[in-house]
Amino acid sequence: MTDPRLAVIVLAAGQGTRMKSATPKLLHELAGAPIVSHVLATAKALDAAHVLTVVRHERDRLVELISVELPEAIVVDQDEQAGTGRAVELAVAALPDDFDGDVLVLNGDVPLLDAATLEALLTTHRAGDADATLLTSEPADPTGYGRVLRAVDGSIERIVEQKDATAAELATREVNAGVYLFGVESLRDHLASLSTENAQGEKYLTDLVAALRAAGSSVTALPVGDAWIVEGINDRAQLSAAAARLNALIVRGWQLAGVTIQDPATTWIDLTVTLAPDVTVLPGTQLKGATIVATGATIGPDTTLVDCEIGERATVKRTDATLAVIGDDATVGPFSYLRPGTILHADGKIGTFVETKNAVIGRGSKVPHLSYIGDTEVGEGSNIGAGTIVANYDGVNKHRTQVGSQVRTGSHNVFVAPVRIGDGAYSGAGTVIRKNVPAGALAVNVAPQRNIEGWVAANRPGTEAARAAEESGNS
Ligand code: UD1
Ligand code: CA
Questions:
Q1: Where are the annotated segments for Linker (predicted)?
Q2: Among residues 56, 117, 194, 226, which one has the fewest Cβ atoms lying within 10 Å of its Cβ?
Q3: Tens digit of pLDDT for each residue in 149-177?
């Protein structure tokens, strides 16, 4: 149910310089979704009456994402004045004048924070009479975070940023998680007057704590037991640490749901993937995007699936596949490369060193070895010989190949598209199929073999070959 007394502000205007990237920090991914998407999803789960996002750096790219994932959010453009305090000041100005509830501020770069922790923060804030409540934690390494400075009576006095802190202040273990609840009046009264006299020349939201204290208002904190929940991502080392943490949670979730995952450390699963009970995932596997795996299937080792659908009891081994559909009991790999539009029906096989693209391979049909099959349809129960290449590209256009059912083509064929091979047809080894093959026909076009007896003895005398031939008695 919508909480009429709650507004959520997601701060997403920062530049993220520490990532040293052409991609905005908040669009770097973990578990298949941009950092900020995780925060937007949490904001959405709270069902607040008002959601606001503050943007500036690469604003169009962020706004595009926000409009898809949180369309109800009001987008606030931050001006040239930098700092989290300025960002919140502008967002509060965009709230309706008659809003008099609580404002939850979330840093856009704290992606692992869950809605349950925020509900706890909300409960703590509303149960007490503090004007502000912040989440704090004690990470193993507090470097980079604002330190929470308390008075001797334990009350919170102020927050000092890493770059402004003295050595003694830096020794403080408790840090500001970047997640706060304020009564909206506290924000309206004090944000405008925050100074920019600090190491970064920014308007710090964190200075609000001291301002509230000075005005006689009270600030409390809810310490979070597991520091990783509120870890911020500023650089790529923190990005990989957070991604590993989230992945471990995802893997464990699937294990408890009945999926065998042999090696959690080398298995990476996006949040958007769906696995059925009794799926087995072997080491070195990445499951990405909208991938769905049905019960009894075995994926891996060393397999990457992007947006794939895998049928029951199918096996996919040492394979790279994107937008492919694999039927029940089908087998893929080892060493297969399935490009978009590959559909392998039930009981089919795509084997070793086979590349496919826009290829529909019918029930029980097999492409077992060393082939390229593109823009092709194969009927049921057919076998494509080892080393077959579909020549689908004439240098300008792509053309289609159609192979019927119960076809047996020889090894090392080329199907020069457009071409059709009828039901039950055969082809000889080494055939270059340029013309349609009628149903039931045998296609051959390799020149008859000619053996020139004694050629080696006559033309390569004294070689190992000539000696071997002579010793065999058949020179
Ligand atoms: C901030 C806090 C710090 C806290 C830490 C927790 C301040 C001044 N410091 O530091 O006390 O320990 O988060 O992770 O708030 N942003 C804007 N507009 C701006 C600047 C930043 O919207 O002008 C956004 C960023 O996109 C980011 C968030 O605010 O999502 C935090 O900014 P960042 O620069 O990462 O702050 P920290 O230095 O990590
Ligand atoms: Ca940060």
A1: 237-257
A2: 226
A3: 999 999 999 999 999 999 999 999 999 99
